Amino acid sequence: MDEIVREFIKEKFKEQNEKILKINKLETSGNLTYKLKTAKKEYILRLCGIKKRQRTKNEVQAEVELINFLREKEIPVPKLINFRDDFVIILGDKAGICYEFIDGETTKKTTLTQCYLVGKMLGKIHNLTKNYKFKYPRKRWGLEETRIKFGEVEGLFSTDEYLQKNNFIERLTSILNQLKFERNLPFGAIHEDLGKRHVLFKNNKINGLLDWDRSYSGPFILDLGQTIRGWCFDDWKKLNHQKLTRLLDGYENQRKLSLIEKKSLLNAIKFAFIERVIAFVIFAYNTNKKEYKNHAINDLTLLENLSLNLNLPLD
């Protein structure tokens, strides 16, 4: 498959009168992703993977339209490449996109300033995408979908001796059953996975927001919960309330949280972890990497002791 993709890439850029000088395959969690170099520029090309990473052309087209919408609003999203009047590239049963490489660096240890900037950027995006409707249906990653996914794999998890020694099913079910969200939460297009690896910094500013592959129309508070999970926990062991406060300060600099959102914040953070807990165990089975089961169990322990110490006025 790799050689087929490489030849495909060369042909696509030949259409653009550009010669590929170098192709490097990047390690990712599921998609086929390549860094390309021509005499003019560097690019990233992403084709959808298999199973949960599979996307139809229409799904990718919906992602393209959101990215282009945000770019027009001067949000630092990728500049997509248009191949013969089509931003979506197709190879066999795989759809994807290609965009100009964005200069910048990710961070592993988040700072208070970075948390503020990320919160501010997320608030700005949510203002822009309020009530945004995708032209084509997108996969959703909400509470209902997560409960369905858990139901599909619960039997497999329950037969795992290592998980059961840690009462995994009972603990996960207890937290999942406690979660609920009001139906009238403010919503729009959300990134859903704005963690550290998807934000590029340059000269102490955000220079790139990557991977809109999981974006869909959903409650803003779920997007905020996922972002807090990615930026405000030290070594995935403890919530750093200073970082959380700065991220929320940045967010509310652009968009004020409603009362119903403030009351839902703790559940949104818990949901962000639970959704990933289930994904961790599935990934452990698919890759035979036991450490991902440990990640899942550690996250459950964190959630069981999680509380918020914020001065959010509930008015």
Please give a structural write-up:
- The protein has 315 residues and is of the alpha+beta class.
- It folds into two domains: 2-100, Phosphorylase Kinase, domain 1 (2-Layer Sandwich), CATH 3.30.200; 112-304, Alpha-Beta Complex (Aminoglycoside 3'-phosphotransferase, Chain: A, domain 2), CATH 3.90.1200.10.
- The chain is 47% helix and 16% strand.
- The chain has ten helices and eleven strands.
- The protein has helices at residues 2-15, 57-72, 112-128, 143-158, 161-165, 168-178, 220-231, 241-254, 259-287, 291-304; strands at 20-26, 32-38, 42-47, 89-91, 94-100, 187-190, 199-202, 205-209, 216-219, 233-234, 238-239.
- It has a five-stranded antiparallel β-sheet, sandwiched between helices. Strands 6-9 form a two-stranded antiparallel ribbon. The protein has a two-stranded antiparallel sheet with strand order 7-8.
- Helix 3 runs antiparallel to helix 7 and helix 9 packs antiparallel against helix 10.
- The protein starts with a helix and ends in an 11-residue tail after the last helix.
- The model has no long low-confidence stretch (mean pLDDT 94).
